[in-house]
Every structure is written in C-alpha cells, then in structure tokens.
Amino acid sequence: MDRTAQLIARPAEYTAVYDPTTSAGSLHLRAIEVLDGNWTGTSTVPSHGLYPHQWSWDSAFIAIGLRHVSPRRAQTELETLLDAQWGDGRIPHIVFNPSVPLDAYFPSPDFWRSVTAGRAAGAPRTVQTSGIVQPPVHALAAWLVHRADPGLSRARGFLARVYPRLAAWHRYLLHRRDLGGGGLVSVVHPWEQGMDNAPSWDAPLARIAPAPARSFRRADLAHGAPEDRPTDLDYGRYVRLATDYRDGEYADGRTDFAVEDPAFNALLIASEHALARIAEELGATGTARHARAQRLTAALVDRLWDPAEGLFFCRDLRGGGLIRERGVSGLVPLLLPGLSREIVSALVGTLRGPHFGVGATTRLAPSYDLLGEAFDPHRYWRGPAWCNTSWLVERGLRLHGERAHADALRAAVLDVADTSDFAEYVDPYTGEACGATGFSWTAALTLDLLHDTQAIQETQATHRLPHGTAFDRADSSFKGGDRG
C-alpha cells in the first residue's frame, strides 16, 4: 500500500475530504504526508533537519491545519506544548526532544539551562526548554481546534484543561512584559517575535556587543545557503542577548533589547478575543476579555500606527521612538476586528502598493519593504515571503470584507505551496523555494486554506462579539458572505 493509500485508510486518525485525483485533492494529501512525516508521536517538528524540536508558534499554526484532518492530533499538539509551560505562565519558544543529539541544533538545551537558570521563574524540571517566548497564537488555535469537533473537545475536556494555562500565558505577557508602560507587550529578543532577522531589529541590535564567534556553533548553516541566513555578526548579537537573559535567570525588564512589535501584539489581541469565546463555551463570561482586547487595540493604534505611512511600526523602548522599517509585521494587525475602516483601507493600500506589491509585482506578502535598502528576496525575513504571514493577512482581508483580494492571496498561497514543495519561505516575486522544504506550518496552513468555506465560518464565529461593542461593524461583513 502506498503512502497516500495508507493515510486515507486511517479514518480514526485522518479525515480525507478531497478526491486525490484532483489537483486540490493531491495537494491536500501531500500536505497530510508532510505533517505525518514530521510527527514525533506527541508533537510536530517544523522540519526534521533544520528544526528537530517543537516550536511554540509553529505548533499553534500546525494545530490550526491539523484540526481539519485529525482534531485529536491537533489537540495533542497544543497539549504537549502547554505541558512545558513555566510556573510564571510563559510558554517557551522551544520544547526540546531528549532523543535528539545536542549538536543537532543550536542553541541547544545545555545553552538555555532552563532547569537551573529558570528555576526562579518556574521552569519545568522534567523537560528542557528555551527561556524566551514566541507570538501568542495559542488561544486562537485552541478555539479553532475546538470548533473543528466540539463533541470530541467536550468529551476530552480539552478547553477546560487548556483554558487556565492559556489565561496564565496571557497574564504573564500583560503583567511582566509591558515594559513601556503603555499597555503593549514587549519582546526581549528578535527570536521571540518570530521574524528573527527582520531589518526592524537592526537599530536595536546595533547597541548589542556580539558574543565571540568561537563561543557558539551555527547548526543552521548546515541546512541552508549561508547567503540566505543571518550574518555571523547578527547571530553573535542574538547569542549575546540570550546569554544575558539566561544569566539574569530569565527575569524581565533588565534586558538591553525591548521592542513593542505590531504582529506580536495583534496576535495577543486576536487570542484575547478567542480566550473570551473559550470562557463563554465553559459557561463563564468573556466580556472582560473582549474589553481588554479593545483596550489593547486602542494602545496598538496609539503607540504603533503611523497614518502618514499607512502602516504599523515597531517601537524601540531602549532607543526611543518608532523604528521606521516597513515589515510584514506592520500588516498583520489587519486580522483585528476593532480597526477603523480608515486604518483598514490604508493597510490594504500599503499591502498592494509599491512597498509590498501584493497582487501587482509579488505573489505573496514579502517580509520586508521591496524598496528598502536592506531588501533581499532570499535572505531570512529580509524580503522572502512566508506562508504564515500571508495566511494572517488573508484572514484579515476576509474579515474586513476585502473578498477579492483575499481570494487572490489565498490562490497564490496554495499555488506557491504546491510548486515549492511546502517551502519554509519563498522568493516573493517568483515563489522559488528557500530554506527547508516539507515545512510543517506551510503544509498545515495549506490544509486550512483548502478547507476555506469552513475556515470562513470559524473566522466569523471567532470574531462574533457582543452587540454594542466597537466591533459590530467589522463582524457584520461576514453576514451572508460565505463562499459556496
């Protein structure tokens, strides 16, 4: 029996809904094969070569795709990650697999020393993790996973078990990471924001003395072209920041790098809305969480929005002021239902204008300004396009009634995923594969877009907020708007 037949033959594990003789059916099954090949038994690695452990926001995106074919596995994905949560509420950005050799990835567990250096912050004793975090997509993922099979979710007590952990995660971010005092969450390392090598970090990083090159070994260069990866100088600064944070026992507020990022905060806001829906499902009220999401949206606009540029920018808390580098992070707030029509229109104009060119010169949303001095179509987060950011932008376009633009971007993501063999990232102009292929979140979000009618319904449910709030207008764009 071939691999495709094996997958179809396991109805208890996967639900196959596409005819494998069609192009969509073939893509659907190939995406399942990627996720099945990257499954470890309890979680999914991004890719076995370059990323052989569990990554935090990867697992959230993976669960969002897995819910369409195996809701049980999607639940397990999130539960495994949450089992590694620290006592202070943080969800670490890496959960290490003890069966993987130490030299397979750097920084490895012996660098982070979570069990000892993280003791004061409540790091788990039975599993080794990193000490930094990644964007909080998890509550959104949990809500969507629940809605994929509410009966299974309720029978397993899925939401009842994950809700307290997700609430603690949000408390950590809101209470420990409001380093600027303006209500927004700060990242203390570029790796936390997920867009590791973005030009937005260049100015804050320039103040950091790099760790000596001899003090670390770059495992990433064995799996990708050096010219596509961060430079040794930048990597040395990443290592220095992580070392200082570790040596400070992962205490927040003391780092030399502190940046308010629009994508990180937008994902927190989206997850606050989702956490409110989870609370309501469990019989509690979500009113306070919806209200908090509204306040966070107002703070996001107040602190990071530039109406003249039509984009959200990062704010450097140590250097002062906005970092005026145009990155895809500044477009991600499109997924928020509380934005004014004026801001939405400006963001759509920026997305389709000369700096990002989506629908005109680029196939997917580039990670950085096409006209920027640092633009490179192949270098990590300095120009290439990524499936997850385009998925977030597509979701935002659809939320705000920009159906034609959303449809076009959805079609482009699916085509690029198909032709690039589910690449980690791609040239934004050509769709040429860069980095790893068979990348898990690319496969997972491909599944989500293939199930787009159901996805639209779930987007509507996630953002259906109480009447009388500022979000009614954005929510109303869905009424009668499902695609057949």
TrEMBL record:
Keyword vocabulary terms for this entry: Glycosidase, Hydrolase
Region (Disordered) residue spans: 461-484
Gene3D superfamilies xrefs: 1.50.10.10
Biased composition annotated in UniProt, kind: Basic and acidic residues: 470-484
Pfam families reported in the protein's UniProt record: MGH1-like_GH
Keyword rRNA-binding in annotation: no
Record flagged with keyword Hydrolase: yes
Ranges for domain Mannosylglycerate hydrolase MGH1-like glycoside hydrolase: 51-442
Superkingdom in the source lineage: Bacteria
Family as reported in the entry's similarity comment: Belongs to the glycosyl hydrolase 63 family.
Protein name per its UniProtKB record: Mannosylglycerate hydrolase MGH1-like glycoside hydrolase domain-containing protein
